[in-house]
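As agreed, record copied across for absentees:
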Amino acid sequence: MITASAFEQFEIIRIIPIHPFGNFDISITNSTIFMGIACFFFYFLFSNNHQDLVPGRWQSVLEILYENIYNVVKDNIGSEGAKYFPLIFSIFIFIAFMNLFGIIPYTFTPTAHIVVTFGMSLSIFIAVTLIGLIRYKSDFFSMFMPAGSPLLLAPFLVIIEFVSHCAKAISLGVRLAANLTAGHLLFAILSGFTWKMLTAGGFIAVASIFPFIIVVFITVLEMAVALIQAYVFCLLTTIYINDSIHLH
């Protein structure tokens, strides 16, 4: 029963059903609403100018996030990365908010669904490919044949490099969704186990303090994972952009 209830947090619920053309479904779901909330929080955080000479706590947090993501872009793309910084920073904040929502009871985590994360990773894959094609035109395909490779191995290397390149469209999304799903499942199962012990009464209720402490640590860990996964997503995105800008 615990395992079954743990999966309920991933259920897509249609809040406002919309079917304009028969089976064409554009209904507003719980996933849609929480993605909208993430966009609202993003706007709310950065709609005001935080430019105090002596920054407060919140401005300091924003400046730390800004500086860290900027350094990621600069270190992996170089001087040309400045124009991509707004995109990378927006992706980080958006994913971080959606990841953190899942820690709050009775909320929904859009990034735990592969359809959401794959949609983001596929969009990034198409974008970085277009960047390379626009910049290098037909020379872009030279990236599938590493320099100095024997001509005899060309067919095998081209296939391997092509598959490796296309895997970017999947790897980003799968990594993010898998990590969040596993973490939320573990959190839900331990929480349910702790609650059953607490309501059992007697010695078992007293013993529930141990799994409760574990749940607290898991909560802190989940918060860290939520931010780390957003960071990793952005880090890999900058690496993919760099690969398209600077062919090997």
